[in-house]
Amino acid sequence: MSLRFDFNNMFDFSVSEHGVSRQDIDTFLPQARKAAEHLKKIISEPRARIKLNLEWAKLPEQKEEDIAAIIKIARQIAQKYENVLFLGIGGSYLGLKAAQDALCPPYYNEFKSLRKKAPRVYFEGNNLDPDTLSVLLKNLNPKKTFVVVISKSGETTETKAAFVLAEAWLKKSAGARYGRQILAITDPESGSLRKKVQAERGKDSLSFRTLPLLKGVGGRFSEFNMGLLHLAIVGVDIRKLFLGAREMAQRCAQEDILKNPAYLYAVLHFILYQKKAKSLAILMPFSQTLKSTADWYVQLLAESLGKKYHRQVQLDKDGVENWLADKNDLFNRGRTPISAAGTNDLHSIQQNNIEGENNKVVTFMRVEKFKTDLKIPGKGDLLSGKSYCQLMQLAQEATEWALVDQKRPNCTVIIPEVSAYHWGALLFFFEMATAFEGELLNVNAFDQPGVEGYKNYMYYKLGKPGISQAITEEIKNKPLIKKPEYVL
Ligand code: PA5
């Protein structure tokens, strides 16, 4: 069984004037085919793929020896330590957290029987809130804790700050050999984390073990690279994950747009965005374990498609494409993703989905078979004898019906079960759909220049050397206005 995609409720025959018509699709197909050809060309060309950050498309094809090497390191860590503390933010965190919640049992850290001898795992370095990290550093035993720091750039403030603290904490307990309790996943050549790794390994070759991030893979597209160690530590079968991702890659390579799930998903959303002003993307898994996958998708969609400028394609001297922001072609658009969960958020955001502005498309994730089921005991009550799975599926169907009844477009990804195989397929599907929508929108889906604004401001205020004159002037000349009468 494979993932299935139900797009019926995206069409006018389900939601009238708020849906896509067959004519809309036919009119749009030539443009979609062109976009598909372009994407295919880039992906088939190693130089372009790496240069433009599309190497993620090849990650499911990683070599067996690389997978085996990661599993070996993971086993060494898992056998020796009770806790593993992962430090990272954005793409260096969300994929791992999504995998943890989807593929490990709920309450994994709480119950030894669920972990099956694997260590407890904690995620930090994804915030500057001192109240969370300090609890861990006060309560975990540093002698029994291994730290994995993940940062592609090796420069990100949140992760760096947490790592400096974690390092000092380990050092205090382990002394000079503390580096043997650290593994860094970072760019193979650049960044201060890579420099640190090289310096520490020079002093003690067993310390600061490292795994490289592959070239041409951006943070949010990198779960199949930077997330592998985590998966192996908690005992997820990476090979099955890749099998699922590869099956999906094949499905998403089909040229017929109407048969290609990622392309059709992107085309339908694109038309609804352009023609019907559906600018909000609500991702609603009907499974508590997929809520973090929805959060992962929020980053994927927001950073990939929310852009100020259109893309300008140029060729370099070797004939390889360069993508620049076309400063003469202001875009300032991109669908806004929101993650919600069925059934909790049926008592929250769903009211707005149904009766608020009709400017949204809901994507459901429906699980066909849960790992367990619960039968409600008793007799005579409406719920007596009903199973949780049955109720969950009915709730999803009911939500779909309620949306259609109010002419609200939606679609459903049907997941046979939340296994490594299907989760790998799911991630690849969303990655390809996002990349394809980037083509349709003509934006660079693989950068995130908008994230720099807050970083620049912080660096300026922190006195970081090397900030450009232009940025310095901009910050100086445009201070935040704080009129006392408006601070109540
Ligand atoms: O998608 C991206 O590339 C970003 O969101 C990064 O993942 C995020 O900013 C963290 O960066 P880094 O891994 O360099 O610390």
Record the SSE blueprint.
Blueprint lengths: L3 E3 L5 H4 L6 H23 L1 H6 L12 H17 L2 E5 L6 H10 L8 H4 L4 E5 L5 H10 L5 E7 L5 H18 L7 E5 L5 H12 L5 E4 L10 H4 L1 H6 L4 H14 L9 H16 L3 E7 L4 H15 L1 E9 L5 E13 L2 E4 L9 H7 L4 E10 L18 H18 L4 E8 L2 H22 L10 H11 L6 H9 L11
Parallel strand pairs: 2-3, 2-4, 4-5, 5-6, 7-10, 7-11, 11-12
Antiparallel strand pairs: 1-12, 8-9
Helix pairs in contact: 2-13, 2-17, 5-14, 12-17, 13-17, 14-17
Bound molecules: 5-phosphoarabinonic acid.
Structure, described:
- By secondary structure, the protein is an alpha/beta fold.
- The chain folds into two domains: 4-52 and 239-441, 3-Layer(aba) Sandwich (Rossmann fold), CATH 3.40.50.10490; 56-237, Glucose-6-phosphate isomerase like protein, domain 1 (Rossmann fold), CATH 3.40.50.10490.
- 46% of the residues lie in helices and 16% in strands.
- The chain contains 19 helices and twelve strands.
- The strands form three sheets. The protein has a five-stranded mixed sheet with strand order 1-12-11-7-10, with helices on both faces. A five-stranded parallel sheet has the order 3-2-4-5-6, with helices on both faces.
- Strand 11, helix 16 (388-405) and strand 12 (410-417) form a beta-alpha-beta unit.
- The protein is globular, with a radius of gyration of 24 Å.
- 43% of the residues are buried.
- The model has no long low-confidence stretch (mean pLDDT 97).
- It binds 5-phosphoarabinonic acid (PA5).
- 5-phosphoarabinonic acid binds next to loops.
